[in-house]
């Protein structure tokens, strides 16, 4: 950190912008050329990397279309011949895949919808409203983030066991409805950029807090809400530890458990096409959402990080 | 006087509404975090099978933990698997630097590298389990093309942890890449311009401008990755049921889960989970401490 | 704006409420009682049970919800259900868990319902099966009955007859077991490269240590525990000798697929593809093995120094929950599954077990139309020389599992059996002491 004086973390905006001295045209061309060659090399490397990133997914799909025997063919076939599309029909009757999708939707849907409402109202209160000791309260909540779920899961399990909720979706849903401190944290960061005076003015105009929230706050934090919503949804959708503890009956299991038990059941029969078909189906919904909204999702995730 | 009373009634009303707004998360926190945590503290001093009432046994669980080779092995495995964190962060920084160039196709690459992040971890673990198969797996097929006879990754004590690390890096790289990219794009141009006027080369610019500007993101990623890494479970449970060859891939959460729900040793499992929680807390606190000191030196 | 926002919230809450209402505890159907039955198994078992239970439902005016899990998941799932206070009314229990479940009050003492009952004749059920679930508060095998056997599973030994014929080797005897040396000799002759590509593609055998070590240990005069199960006895020379012999099958005699080959395609798959000469056969395998494209039959296990063949007889019990809301019906269901002729017949027909009923198995053993030909071997094991798995008689199986956790170096030939067992014994003893202490007999 010997250069610390020249690398101030936050640049002072008032410093006048020094224009770059113009370079001679020839030198600029040479630099351009160098940059272009650099781009070509980088593109080639990135493409190789992209193949590595996608290969396992493509391989899954390819395997899911194979016959039992073709899975063990050497050298392996990338394009299965014949392509056994029946695997995708078989898979629905081979296990409770459909109820798994339904259960996952119920859990992830209810948690994120209700939890988002709870979180954004709380974020509003923490950021902009008068409440004694609210900063202490907020810090305590934040510290709770550091408690790993495994440290609470056994007492939580016994709590839900006592009221007879084991083997239902309720233990997965209820805790989420109370909001999510990560989301509150990011929304609060966001709200700090709104000047208090605007809100004070609205208050003097006699607007209720719900109105202020809806008219002034919501439009500002909408992108942040969307980002957090999507991330949370995917988090709940992909959760595994809590479901594996709580859910016993096959028809109550979430999608992730269903495909894991496909894996356990059909691996002994080496029915890999079936396992891969189920896994691919589990991947597909999120994959489709991602491809459609990829720009928004990526931008909002990036934005989340920038705020963090 | 009247305006003051009016204001204080208003304030009181505001406080009431604010209380309602924060009530849900606070209640949730009390019921689903504080209470279980306190109960954990109590239960960790008991012998408890989850069926009958807990029996107070003092420090017995913690003493047993000290001499339980599997506890230490699981701790070590969990720590070892975190090697993936620096590897993943370095790779994703390189990726972000590459994607930060002005060139075609960056959007496409960004999407491709992000796909594993959004994919379900259970499905990903299943497909990598198959990819690591000794004879028919994708990895060894690829290695065979360059003349390497690959091991049976998940069945070998020496390779099972590296295999899981490879998978985790593949899965998580896109996320940190994205955050790095966003941070890179928010570095003010004039800083580079100023540095280049000072005669700084590309490497020096990277060291003196880029890296310091990436410090907050790096800090965020390191803290969250360590918290996440200490809880690794799904990959282990799916890819190496039984904790892998000779317990070589059993993580601490996996071991806690086994003890609690397969051997019904809830008291012992709780005490281990408490130790895990304390370690995570301590490590995070130390990181915040160090980070604050570093920021001081920058300012 | 205000109203729109409020409507939004209301709609969101309502939507969540709607979603939630769909996932509360399952409501019981109108009238009639509902029983839950938790068991493990594959598709064949599920189909057989579905049929049998359909009849039970009709005859008893109850509804039975079946929860089926994979064999690997069963123990964890059941324990989670018990800890979660959602004990199924009727469920499978293995003999090793009985003591713990009795002590914690999970399973019901069903002696009064089954001893001298009209609807079940205990004398017509294999004694080994019934006794596996007797517990007198101290020792297993005597005292009150806490479960009825779902089956008895004699773990026999099979050989690929077609392979013997092709190799021109005399068939093994169904009466006199091989000695260890004879077995290795035959296995060596079967291990070869049949298509001359320089790689072995046929092996004498390929056994899993966890399920196959016991016959060789016992027939060599060794055992896991002493008589009153207070001491782990794996550090005897006889035990070491048999484990070493077992490991040497791979490393010295080289009559099994290599570690790598076995991991790629396990020996079960290779046996089914006709690449393995000798392989264990349990009754639950018969439905799968019937369709194999080669001839196979049963023989006694090769015997060590005692000259007498040994093996284990598995069993699963059907227990009734102490917290069942309909205990009589639940006991009836357990009786039905264990001893009802129609129910037994559909399970036997499905090829997943041998009959629980002695008179029915006398019929079954004479049937020459179904495989295997030497069914008598199964019955001999049950009646005569089969034993319970070592962990069946203890409070917890942790001590027993410990032996197999770090055994790989022995199988890989990197450590001698004697050395390993010497290291393992104290660790196992510690877990056994804990188990005995928990059982109250420390």
User: How many domains of chain A, as an integer?
Assistant: 2
Which whole number gives the mean pLDDT of chain A? 83
What class do helices, strands and sheet pairing of chain C give? Answer: alpha/beta
Which superfamily, in CATH terms, is the homologous superfamily of the largest domain in chain C?
Periplasmic binding protein-like II
- Identify the CATH architecture of the largest domain in chain A: Orthogonal Bundle
Please state roughly what percent of the residues of chain C sit in beta strands, choosing from under 5%, 5-15%, 15-25%, 25-35%, 35-45% or over 45%: 5-15%
Tally the structural domains of chain C. 2
CA gyration radius of chain C, whole angstroms: 25 Å
User: Which percent bin holds the helix content of chain A?
Assistant: over 70%
Give the structural class of chain A. mainly alpha
For the termini of chain A, the CA-CA separation is 23 Å
The CATH class assignment of the largest domain in chain C is Alpha Beta
- Distance between the terminal alpha carbons of chain C, to the nearest Å? 73 Å
Tally of alpha and pi helices of chain C: 20
| Integer-rounded radius of gyration of chain A | 26 Å
Oligomer: heterotrimer
Estimated share of beta-strand residues of chain A: under 5%
Order of helices and strands of chain A: HHHHHHHHHHHH
**Could you tell me the number of beta strands of chain C?**
12
Question: What are the key terms here?
Answer:
heterotrimer; A: 308 residues; mainly alpha; MetI-like fold; 2 domains; 12 helices; 70% helix; 0% strand; disordered N terminus; C: 442 residues; alpha/beta; D-Maltodextrin-Binding Protein, domain 2; 6-stranded mixed sheet; 4-stranded mixed sheet; 20 helices; 12 strands; 46% helix; transmembrane (chain A); membrane (chain A); cell membrane (chain A)
Plain-language structure description:
Chain A: It comes from Arthrobacter psychrolactophilus. Chain A: The chain crosses the membrane at residues 37-59, 105-126, 138-166, 172-191, 212-234, 272-293. Chain A: One of its GO terms (biological process) is transmembrane transport. The complex is a heterotrimer of chains A (308), B (299) and C (442). The model of chain A is unreliable at 1-19 (pLDDT under 50). Helices cover 70% and strands 0% of the residues of chain A. Chain A has helices spanning 25-64, 87-94, 97-128, 134-144, 150-162, 170-177, 181-191, 196-204, 209-237, 241-246, 255-267, 272-307. In chain A, helix 1 (25-64) packs antiparallel against helix 12 and helix 3 (97-128) runs antiparallel to helix 11. Chain B has 13 helices and 2 strands. In chain B, strands 1-2 form a two-stranded antiparallel ribbon. In chain B, a hairpin with a 7-residue loop joins strand 1 (46-47) and strand 2. In chain B, helix 2 (60-66) crosses helix 13 (266-298) and helix 3 (69-81) packs across helix 12. The two termini of chain B are 47 Å apart. The mean pLDDT of chain B is 89. Chain C has 2 domains: 33-154 and 314-387, Periplasmic binding protein-like II (D-Maltodextrin-Binding Protein, domain 2, 3-Layer(aba) Sandwich), CATH 3.40.190.10; 156-312 and 391-439, Periplasmic binding protein-like II (D-Maltodextrin-Binding Protein, domain 2, 3-Layer(aba) Sandwich), CATH 3.40.190. In chain C, helix 9 (209-219) packs across helix 10. The longest helix of chain C has 23 residues, at 417-439. Chains in contact: A-B, A-C, B-C. Chain A binds chain C through residues 72, 103, 106, 109-110, 113-114, 117, 157-158, 160-162, 164-170, 173, 177, 208, 210-211, 213-215, 218, 245-246, 248-250, 252, 261, 264-265, 268, 270, and chain C through 1-2, 4-6, 9, 12-13, 15-16, 19-20, 22-25, 38, 42, 65, 67-70, 72-73, 77, 80-81, 83-86, 265, 268-269.
């Amino acid at each position: 950190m010997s250069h610390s004086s020249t690398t101030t973390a936050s640049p002072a905006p008032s410093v006048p912008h020094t224009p770059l001295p113009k370079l001679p045209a020839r030198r600029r061309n040479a630099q351009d050329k160098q940059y272009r060659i650099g781009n070509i090399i980088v593109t080639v490397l990135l493409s190789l990397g992209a193949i590595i990133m996608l290969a396992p997914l493509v391989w899954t799909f390819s395997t899911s279309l194979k016959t039992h025997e073709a899975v063990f063919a050497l050298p392996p076939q990338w394009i299965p011949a014949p392509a056994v599309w029946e695997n995708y029909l078989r898979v629905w009757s081979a296990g409770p895949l459909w109820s798994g999708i339904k259960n996952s939707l119920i859990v992830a849907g209810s948690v994120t919808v209700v939890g988002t409402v709870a979180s954004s109202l709380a974020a509003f209160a923490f950021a902009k409203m008068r409440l004694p000791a609210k900063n202490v309260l907020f810090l305590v909540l934040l510290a709770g983030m550091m408690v790993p779920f495994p440290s609470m899961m056994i007492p939580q399990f016994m709590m839900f066991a006592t009221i007879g909720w084991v083997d239902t979706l309720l233990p997965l849903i209820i805790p989420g409805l109370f909001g999510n401190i990560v989301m509150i944290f990011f929304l609060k960061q966001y709200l700090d950029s709104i000047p208090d005076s605007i809100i004070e003015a609205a208050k003097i105009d006699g607007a209720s807090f719900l109105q202020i929230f809806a008219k002034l706050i919501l439009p500002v934090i909408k992108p942040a809400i969307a980002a957090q919503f999507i991330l949370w949804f995917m988090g709940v959708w992909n959760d595994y530890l809590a479901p594996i503890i709580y859910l016993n009956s096959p028809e109550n299991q979430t999608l992730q458990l269903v495909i894991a038990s496909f894996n356990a059941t059909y691996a002994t029969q080496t029915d890999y096409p079936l396992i891969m078909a189920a896994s691919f189906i589990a991947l597909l919904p999120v994959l489709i959402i991602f491809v459609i909204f990829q720009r928004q999702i990526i931008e909002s995730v990036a934005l989340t990080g920038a705020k963090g | 006087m009247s305006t003051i009373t009016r204001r204080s009634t208003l304030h009181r009303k505001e406080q009431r509404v604010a209380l309602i707004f924060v009530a849900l998360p606070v209640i949730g926190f009390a019921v689903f975090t504080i209470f279980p945590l306190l109960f954990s503290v109590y239960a960790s001093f008991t012998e408890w099978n989850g069926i009958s009432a807990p029996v107070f046994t003092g420090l017995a669980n913690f003493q047993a933990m000290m001499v339980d080779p599997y506890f230490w092995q699981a701790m070590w495995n969990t720590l070892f698997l975190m090697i993936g964190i620096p590897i993943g962060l370095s790779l994703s920084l390189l990726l972000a630097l590459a994607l930060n160039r002005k060139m075609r196709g960056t959007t496409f690459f960004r999407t491709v590298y992000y796909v594993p992040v959004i994919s379900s971890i259970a499905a990903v673990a299943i497909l990598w389990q198959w990819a690591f198969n000794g004879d028919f797996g994708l990895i060894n097929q690829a290695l065979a093309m360059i003349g390497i006879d690959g091991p049976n990754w998940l069945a070998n004590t020496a390779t099972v942890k590296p295999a899981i690390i490879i998978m985790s890096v593949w899965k998580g790289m896109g996320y940190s890449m994205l955050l790095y990219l966003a941070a890179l794009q928010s570095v003010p141009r004039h800083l580079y311009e100023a540095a280049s006027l000072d005669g700084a080369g590309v490497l020096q610019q990277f060291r003196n401008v880029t890296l310091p500007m990436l410090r907050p993101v790096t800090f965020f990623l390191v803290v969250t990755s360590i918290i996440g890494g200490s809880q690794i479970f799904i990959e282990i449970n799916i890819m190496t049921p039984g904790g892998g060859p000779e317990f070589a891939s059993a993580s601490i959460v996996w071991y806690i889960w086994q003890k609690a729900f397969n051997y019904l040793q809830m008291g012992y499992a709780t005490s281990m989970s408490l130790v895990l929680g304390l370690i995570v807390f301590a490590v995070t606190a130390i990181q915040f401490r160090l980070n604050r000191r570093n920021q001081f030196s920058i300012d | 704006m205000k109203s729109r926002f409020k409507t939004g919230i209301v709609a969101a809450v309502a939507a969540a409420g709607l979603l939630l209402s769909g996932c509360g505890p399952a409501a019981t159907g109108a009238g009639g009682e509902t029983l839950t039955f938790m068991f493990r198994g594959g598709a064949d078992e599920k189909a057989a049970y579905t049929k049998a239970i359909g009849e039970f439902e009709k005859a008893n005016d109850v509804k039975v919800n079946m929860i089926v899990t994979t064999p690997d998941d069963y123990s964890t799932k059941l324990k989670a259900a018990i800890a979660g206070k959602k004990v199924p009314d009727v469920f499978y229990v293995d003999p090793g868990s009985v003591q713990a479940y009795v002590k914690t009050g999970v399973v019901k003492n069903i002696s009064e319902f089954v001893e001298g009952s009209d609807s079940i004749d205990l004398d017509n059920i294999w004694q080994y099966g019934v006794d596996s679930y007797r517990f007198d508060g101290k020792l297993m095998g005597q005292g009150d009955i806490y479960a009825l056997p779902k089956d008895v599973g004699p773990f026999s030994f099979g050989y690929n007859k077609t392979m013997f014929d092709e190799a021109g080797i005399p068939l093994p005897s169904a009466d006199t077991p091989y000695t260890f040396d004879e077995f290795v000799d035959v296995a060596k002759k079967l291990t070869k490269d049949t298509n001359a590509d320089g790689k072995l593609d046929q092996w004498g055998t390929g056994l899993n240590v966890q399920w196959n070590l016991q016959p060789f240990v016992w027939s060599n005069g060794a055992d896991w525990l002493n008589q009153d199960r207070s001491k782990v006895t794996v550090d005897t020379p006889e035990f070491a000798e048999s484990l070493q012999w077992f490991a040497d099958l791979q490393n010295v005699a080289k009559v099994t697929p290599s570690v790598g080959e076995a991991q790629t395609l396990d020996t079960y798959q290779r046996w089914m593809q006709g690449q393995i000469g000798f392989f264990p056969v349990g009754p639950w395998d018969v439905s799968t093995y019937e369709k194999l494209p080669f001839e196979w039959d049963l023989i006694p296990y090769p015997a060590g120094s005692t000259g007498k063949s040994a093996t284990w007889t598995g069993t699963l019990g059907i227990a009734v929950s102490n917290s069942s809301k309909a205990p009589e019906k639940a006991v009836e269901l357990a009786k039905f599954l264990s001893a009802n002729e129609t129910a037994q017949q559909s399970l036997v027909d499905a090829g997943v077990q041998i009959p629980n009923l002695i008179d029915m198995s006398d019929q079954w053993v004479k049937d020459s139309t179904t495989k295997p030909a030497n069914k008598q071997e199964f019955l001999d094991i049950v009646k005569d020389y089969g034993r319970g798995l070592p962990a069946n008689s203890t409070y917890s199986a942790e001590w027993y599992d410990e032996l197999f956790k770090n055994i790989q170096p022995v199988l890989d030939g990197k450590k001698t059996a004697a050395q390993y067992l010497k290291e393992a014994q104290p660790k196992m003893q510690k877990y056994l002491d804990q188990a005995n202490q928990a059982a109250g007999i420390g």
